[in-house]
């Protein structure tokens, strides 16, 4: 969804943003750069601020609006969303990103799409998982996530690392160009015709959607247009079985304001005999209201159609906006025709901690129910409950009810006031002023009460109302009153369920294959773009839930002001076990409580990232530093046979990243320690990762004159990476690189481009380079080709070090060999 003041920005959102101007930070929203992508600009939070939803997703900080590209991929639900991470109002749209294993416990992740890194206007769009690799974009073992964005046409972005990074397909050029104003592409898999379908809102002659089809997500054909005055922006389009019967499939077309129609789709054209749309949610369905721009997940593992929407009415000191709680959509027959039902996903029960039930009670109006007068205890079964976040389900028999109204006062106080009342009017047959007829003489309602959100469901999900409420979480404002007015009503049954917080169960920026939840044992640990940062005055440990005996364990550590830091293993929950430590006194040390097992002299500098690896075999413990072939420590100790994996820092600040067990890592030719010269170099299971603003080198201590040097290289995002050889300690020498900007394989040295071979280099794709030197002659092979693509001569350097180069890019190098 795009917002343009004076054109598309509706009045309620203008008022909302105007009210937020005073809250904006001093700096406006900013575009990112490749060297800090993916960006993680968020200040620490415990997610416990007033009005912050405890089981509704909100961004860690900044502004959020539309859900985008909701997918289930590679074992996780991914929630992308329109986002300004640098302010509390709409500005300079990014795609925010959060993940969840269960649709309930969300973890904020670094930015998915950033202006300045990814081209185009990064406004609302959709996403899919290309499990069959119809696009050919897959480069590794994971299924690609492919997302669609831009305005007045559609651009494509894709990720092969489960959303950690995204590349722009075809440099972000629009694969669909629409001459009229357009936005908000949504893509689905049309299983019946084994192809993809896209709907894009455009104002071609009025509101409506263009419908496109594609066999491969890349080449699109305009199939038809569905036009409707009510269909304004953020369309969604999906099939649902009527009454759960697979042979009774219908198609649903929705707008941003939750209006929808039901019809048929023949793979080309959507048709409906409805003359007017229905409203899916009864909240304030405008931009900035309480329900807008809903989108459904694709590729859910159990086939459910799960939906989330934007609630703009929630805000706090550091964030604006939240998402509705995920619901499962269904299509049911009613006397008025097929209608959508919305039901909270069953995974909500994972937050339940306390339940109370009541049956067969009569709720009577007090003789005098006045402000400041508390009803008698007998009139309120919930009298003894104090709660902040919870769920209530209740069924009332209204056939013989004499009460004119009944319902719940939520977050009530002893003075008779409450933050919100949920009221059923028996004469008007309305709930919160919206029509709700009894079914078989019964009225059933389900309330989800969070700190800043209230969602009401009734009539089997046919009634849905999403709201934002600033609930007062103070202890004296956590009452619940079940009341009746003007008579009595029969309560068939009611259930109260206390709901715990869903936050803090996974890692935002720490990349690791170790199991959580992690816990701190000393020190203050926070999320930063480079991983997990700690500040501690003594020993600080951060411990995973994974344990082991014999293992290979490795990770990256950067000592900022800390005196020491390293890998902890075979430890208890407090960190007592073995630790392999880098110490700025100039040593690497293996120690356990009460004993330094082994010490090796080694220069250790503040601000530099080091890679540590530990291997345990029974009592034998070996330690490697900076990808050297030989261990710097080879010792024996039998005090601890097994235990938890974690990290340690002592006296200061440090950052840790890429904590992994298993053999994965940087595979390279035998050498001693490697040395960085510019850029940041870390080791992931996929290989050596470089992140450079300009030129950066990672150099081995091995040198040569004539040789064959080869390896696998990729540019995740940015300009170039290559093999460096015959180089000095500063990296000055020859480099054969792949350049995404110029579209070349190039041989260069400082001050001179020696030769180039034109070929498309795609971000995110891995390429094999091979270099052979024979005196002045230098040849370069590309992609396992039989013939060199470069055959040149130069005599500036006759011998020197082997290494890799990264230029204005995030890069990966792996499988380096020298012969």
Structural summary, described in words:
- Helix content is 1%, strand content 52%.
- It is built from 1 helix and 57 strands.
- With 819 residues, it is mainly beta.
- Strands 35, 36, 37, 38, 39, 40, 41, 42, 43, 44, 45 and 46 form a 12-stranded antiparallel beta sheet that branches.
Structural class given helices, strands, pairing? Answer: mainly beta
Mean of pLDDT? 94
| Quaternary structure | single chain
* % residues in beta strands: over 45%
Tertiary shape: globular
Tally the helices: 1
Beta-strand segment tally: 57
Helicity, as a percent range: under 10%
What kind of sheet is the major sheet? 12 strands, antiparallel
How many angstroms does the end-to-end distance come to?
55 Å
Cα gyration radius (Å): 30 Å
Note poorly predicted spans: 2-26
Task: Give a topology summary.
Layout: H1 11-20, E1 62-73, E2 76-84, E3 94-100, E4 107-113, E5 126-129, E6 145-149, E7 153-159, E8 167-168, E9 176-177, E10 182-190, E11 195-202, E12 208-214, E13 221-227, E14 236-241, E15 249-254, E16 259-265, E17 270-271, E18 278-279, E19 292-296, E20 306-315, E21 319-323, E22 327-334, E23 337-344, E24 352-364, E25 390-397, E26 405-412, E27 418-425, E28 430-431, E29 434-435, E30 442-449, E31 453-458, E32 463-468, E33 479-485, E34 488-499, E35 519-521, E36 524-528, E37 531-548, E38 552-559, E39 564-571, E40 578-583, E41 587-592, E42 595-601, E43 609-617, E44 620-625, E45 633-636, E46 643-661, E47 675-677, E48 680-684, E49 687-704, E50 707-727, E51 734-739, E52 744-749, E53 752-758, E54 766-774, E55 777-782, E56 790-793, E57 800-818
Parallel strand pairs: 1-21
Antiparallel strand pairs: 1-2, 2-3, 3-4, 5-6, 6-7, 7-8, 7-9, 10-11, 11-12, 12-13, 14-15, 15-16, 16-17, 16-18, 19-20, 20-21, 20-22, 22-23, 24-34, 25-30, 25-34, 26-27, 26-33, 27-28, 28-29, 30-31, 31-32, 35-37, 36-37, 37-46, 38-43, 38-46, 39-40, 39-46, 40-41, 41-42, 43-44, 44-45, 47-49, 48-49, ...
């Amino acid at each position: 969804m795009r917002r343009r003041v004076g054109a598309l920005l509706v009045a309620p959102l203008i008022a909302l943003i105007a009210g937020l101007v005073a809250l904006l930070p001093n700096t406006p929203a900013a575009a990112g750069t490749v060297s800090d992508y993916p960006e993680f600009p968020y200040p620490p939070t415990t997610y416990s601020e007033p009005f912050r939803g405890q089981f509704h997703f909100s961004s860690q900080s900044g502004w959020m609006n539309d859900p985008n590209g909701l997918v289930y991929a590679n074992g996780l639900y991914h929630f992308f969303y329109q986002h300004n991470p640098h302010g509390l109002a709409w500005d300079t749209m990014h795609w925010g990103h959060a993940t969840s294993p269960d649709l309930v416990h969300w973890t904020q992740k670094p930015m998915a799409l950033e202006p300045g890194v990814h081209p185009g206007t990064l406004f609302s769009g959709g996403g899919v998982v290309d499990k069959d690799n119809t696009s050919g974009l897959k480069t590794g073992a994971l299924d690609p996530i492919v997302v669609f964005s831009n305005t007045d046409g559609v651009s494509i972005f894709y990720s092969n690392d489960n959303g950690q990074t995204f590349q722009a397909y075809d440099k972000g050029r629009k694969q669909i160009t629409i001459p009229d104003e357009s936005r908000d592409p949504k893509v689905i898999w049309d299983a019946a015709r084994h192809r993809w379908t896209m709907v894009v809102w455009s104002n071609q002659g009025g509101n409506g959607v263009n419908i496109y089809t594609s066999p491969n997500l890349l080449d699109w054909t305009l199939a038809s247009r569905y036009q409707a005055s009510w269909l304004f922006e953020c369309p969604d389009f999906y099939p649902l079985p009527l009454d759960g019967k697979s042979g009774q499939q219908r198609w649903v077309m929705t707008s941003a304001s939750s209006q929808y129609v039901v019809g048929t789709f023949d793979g080309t054209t959507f048709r409906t005999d409805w003359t007017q749309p229905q409203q899916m949610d009864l909240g304030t369905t405008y931009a900035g209201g309480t329900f807008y721009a809903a989108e459904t997940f694709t590729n859910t593992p159990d086939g459910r159609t799960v939906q989330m929407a934007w609630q703009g009415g929630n805000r706090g000191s550091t964030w604006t906006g939240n998402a509705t709680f995920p619901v499962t959509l269904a299509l049911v027959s009613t006397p008025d025709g097929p209608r959508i039902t919305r039901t909270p996903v069953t995974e909500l029960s994972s937050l339940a901690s306390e339940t109370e039930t009541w049956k067969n009670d009569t709720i009577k109006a007090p003789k005098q129910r006045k402000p400041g007068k508390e009803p008698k205890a007998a009139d309120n079964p919930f009298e003894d409950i104090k709660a902040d976040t919870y769920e209530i389900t209740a069924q009332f028999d209204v056939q013989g009810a004499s009460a004119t109204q009944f319902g719940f006062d939520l977050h009530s106080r002893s003075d008779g006031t409450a933050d919100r009342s949920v009221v059923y009017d028996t004469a008007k047959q309305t709930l919160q002023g919206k029509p709700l007829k009894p079914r078989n003489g019964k009225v059933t309602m389900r309330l989800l009460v969070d700190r800043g959100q209230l969602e009401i469901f009734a009539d089997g999900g046919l009634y849905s109302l999403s709201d934002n409420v600033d609930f007062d979480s103070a202890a004296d404002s956590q009452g619940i009153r079940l009341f009746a007015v003007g008579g009595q009503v029969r309560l068939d049954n009611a259930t109260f369920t206390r709901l715990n917080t869903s936050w803090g169960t996974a890692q935002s920026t720490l990349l690791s294959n170790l199991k959580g939840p992690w816990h701190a044992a000393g020190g203050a640990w926070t999320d930063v773009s480079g991983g997990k940062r700690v500040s501690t005055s003594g020993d600080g440990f951060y411990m995973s839930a994974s344990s082991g005996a014999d293992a290979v364990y490795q990770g990256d550590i950067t000592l900022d002001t800390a005196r020491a830091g390293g890998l902890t293993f075979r430890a208890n929950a407090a960190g007592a076990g073995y630790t392999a430590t880098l110490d700025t006194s100039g040593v690497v040390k293996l120690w356990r409580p009460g004993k330094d097992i082994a010490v090796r002299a080694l220069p250790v500098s503040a601000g530099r990232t080091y890679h540590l690896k530990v291997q345990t075999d029974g009592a034998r413990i070996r330690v490697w530093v900076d990808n050297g072939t030989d261990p710097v420590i080879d010792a024996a100790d039998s005090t601890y046979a097994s235990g938890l994996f974690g990290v340690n820092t002592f006296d200061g600040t440090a950052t840790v990243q890429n904590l992994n067990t298993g053999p994965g890592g940087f595979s390279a030719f035998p050498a001693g320690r490697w040395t960085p010269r510019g850029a940041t170099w870390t080791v992931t299971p996929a290989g050596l990762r470089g992140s450079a603003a300009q030129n950066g080198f990672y150099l081995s201590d091995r040198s040569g004159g004539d040789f064959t040097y080869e390896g696998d290289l990729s540019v995740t995002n940015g300009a170039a990476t290559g093999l460096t050889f015959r180089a000095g300690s500063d990296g000055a020498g020859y480099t054969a690189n792949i350049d995404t900007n110029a579209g070349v394989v190039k041989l260069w040295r400082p001050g001179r481009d020696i030769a180039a071979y034109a070929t498309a280099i795609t971000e995110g794709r891995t390429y094999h380079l091979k270099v052979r030197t024979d005196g002045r002659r230098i040849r370069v092979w590309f992609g396992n080709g039989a013939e060199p693509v470069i055959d040149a001569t130069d005599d500036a350097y006759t011998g020197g070090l082997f290494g890799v180069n990264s230029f204005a890019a995030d890069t990966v190098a792996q499988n380096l060999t020298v012969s």
